[in-house]
Design goal:
6-stranded mixed β-sheet, D-Maltodextrin-Binding Protein, domain 2, alpha/beta, 5-stranded mixed β-sheet, 10 helices, globular
Length: about 260
């Protein structure tokens, strides 16, 4: 395999609010895109490093994970929501957001664990149509905006909270993945961890610079909802997710270890 030097690193990151504390201040060009698009670019070798959905590693464990850094939650996450008009047990169809396979497969696992099996369909229609028998999975900034605009019109099930209630573990939504041919992966991972630490220590500045969401919401989101580490409990949560994906036929059985650096 040809080793790729760290100079000229091609880096990608989700363009959601949740990644601001991880990427703000990175001093070279960043490809900002939706999770699914970034996963394709990383798989095709168009990116060397990308902050992408955790399911990408579970399905293709060829990548190295930058240890101790992630976006997850140990309860409500606020930005991964099942929007519905009837009780969950009465939902017949769920329209999925195609931008993230992690959230879609998380929802499949949660439904299956609850003994429910609604039809899952993919759609990019916006705004989402929600009927008396259908629901909509929304992720990222779209989920936040939709709930703020339609708070009293629908019911909302937070998938971070649902997962935590079902497993008593945090859920890891996204990780920094590094392609195997990239040289100096340890140095790159160290830079990403240092950037995360610097941003979290000056979180008020990131909040003040935010133009799309209120400072009040950002303080709540960054401090009360999101977790930016990848420690023992987060690793247990990720491996439990893999177990449930295997149990419910989403993934083939795979005992590959977490490749950490």
């Amino acid at each position: 395999m040809t080793r790729r030097p760290a100079e000229g690193l091609r880096i990608g990151c989700v363009k959601y609010l949740n990644a601001r504390p991880l990427i703000s201040g990175w001093d070279t060009q960043v490809d900002f895109d939706h999770p699914a698009a970034l996963c394709r670019k990383l798989a095709n070798g168009e990116l060397d490093v990308a902050f992408v959905s955790s399911f990408e590693f579970l399905e293709h464990p060829i990548y190295t994970i930058a240890d101790d850094i992630a976006v997850g939650s140990d309860g409500c996450v606020e930005s991964v929501l099942l929007v519905h008009a009837v009780p969950i047990r009465d939902i017949e169809e769920v329209v999925l957001d195609p931008a993230s396979r992690t959230s879609a497969n998380l929802l499949r696992c949660l439904f299956a664990q609850a003994g429910l099996n609604p039809c899952m369909v993919a759609s990019s229609a916006s705004p989402p149509a929600i009927t008396t028998k259908s629901a909509r999975l929304l992720i990222g900034d779209q989920a936040i905006r939709f709930r703020q605009a339609h708070r009293s019109e629908y019911q909302y099930r937070d998938l971070g909270e649902w997962w935590n209630e079902a497993t008593d573990l945090p859920f890891v939504f996204a990780l920094w993945l590094i392609r195997p041919e990239v040289q100096d992966a340890k140095r790159i991972a160290d830079q990403l961890r240092t950037l995360r630490d610097r941003n979290l220590s000056s979180l008020d500045k990131i909040i003040a610079d935010e133009t799309q969401f209120s400072a009040e919401f950002c303080r709540h989101y960054f401090r009360d909802c999101l977790q930016f580490g990848f420690a023992e409990q987060e690793k247990k949560g990720l491996l439990r997710f893999r177990e449930l994906c295997e149990k419910h036929g989403i993934l083939q059985a795979n005992a590959a270890p977490l490749r950490l650096i």
